[in-house]
Amino acid sequence: MIELRDVHKSFERKGQSIQALKGVSLRAEKGDIYGVIGYSGAGKSTLIRLVNYLERPTSGQVFVDGEPLDQYSPSELRQVKKRIGMIFQHFNLLESKTVFDNIAIPLVLLKKGKEEIRERVTELLKFTGLSDKAGSYPKELSGGQKQRVGIARALASNPSILLCDEATSALDPQTTSSILELLKRINEEYNITIMIITHEMGVIQQICNKVAVMEQGLIIEQGNVLEVFGNPRHATTQSFVQTVIHNSVPQSVIHTLKAESGRRLFRLKFVGGAASEPVINNLIRNHEVNVNILFANMTEIQNTTLGTMILQMNGDNGTIDQAASYLLSQGVEITEVDKV
Ligand SMILES: Nc1ncnc2c1ncn2[C@@H]1O[C@H](COP(=O)(O)OP(=O)(O)OP(=O)(O)O)[C@@H](O)[C@H]1O
């Protein structure tokens, strides 16, 4: 569990105060994969550095597994930090050490015995799919393999929390996907809480269950990924969501609409069950309306389908109202719009 309560962080530079965080509160429960997204300079790195106490808050508190970090003595803090693993955009591997020795670093620092280290590292090599790379050096690995080493090293001391700082930003889309799958497996098999900071909404879409959107040192929107993706309120969130859910209506359709004014337009949103039901089919069969599907898009988030559709309905007003009520009764969110 990770919690930030009204955290402020300022940096003093050349007599100037830079407010990187201006009162941030969030809570990631045990087992969450919590994504923090924002543009450059929003404060994401500062936030994640506060969680492992590389930085201290100017005010406010950071809790890890229920305990406020500022209450610990330095030796207690070292113990807490062992429960937090971290992976980085540029992997931060030691070039002069083999894959095996890189993964072993935290265990050597914890003064574990040789046999225990061998067993644990062998297990991690297997888990991350690197068994045949134990004796290789980082320069002999691809970016994805390097990140797997970073992940294995972060897991070596059995953390309860894994922090990921733009961990896939240097990777191509396919490698990104395989690393995200690995993170998901870590979360599921080891029940590790994961916090990911990223500027890519695709990362949030693929594995996070919760998300916070940051801008200028503040969280402007947060919640379940499905809720935030389905109903982004803030303009910045909307522009992030649009990078993965392409629900803007093609220009050719907009032209058609102008030519057919006088018909009623509806924007529909399907979430989960409603999306897979033959709702539109039943609408057409049971109501005296002409239905024209102008645009439809389905996206899979958290194993749930999120769909957007724009319908034009033509018929008498009362019948169209009935058709709209039918859609509502089927769990479809429906809004009448003047234009798309
Ligand atoms: N050590 C520091 N000293 C001075 N200013 C800092 C320091 N660390 C961060 N800042 C400032 O705090 C603000 C937030 O930076 P931060 O790195 O947390 O943003 P970010 O969202 O992670 O951006 P990016 O994705 O570019 O890394 C920026 O204005 C940055 O210049």
UniProtKB/TrEMBL annotation:
Keywords: Amino-acid transport, ATP-binding, Cell membrane, Membrane, Nucleotide-binding, Translocase, Transport. InterPro entries: AAA+_ATPase, ABC_transporter-like_ATP-bd, ABC_transporter-like_CS, ACT-like_dom_sf, MetN_ABC, MetN_ABC_transporter-like, NIL_domain, P-loop_NTPase. GO terms for molecular function: ATP binding; ATP hydrolysis activity. Belongs to the ABC transporter superfamily. It comes from Paenibacillus agri. This is ATP-binding cassette domain-containing protein. GO terms for cellular component: plasma membrane. PANTHER family: AMINO ACID IMPORT ATP-BINDING PROTEIN, METHIONINE IMPORT ATP-BINDING PROTEIN METN. Pfam families: ABC_tran (PF00005), NIL (PF09383). GO terms for biological process: amino acid transport. Residues 2-241 form the ABC transporter domain.
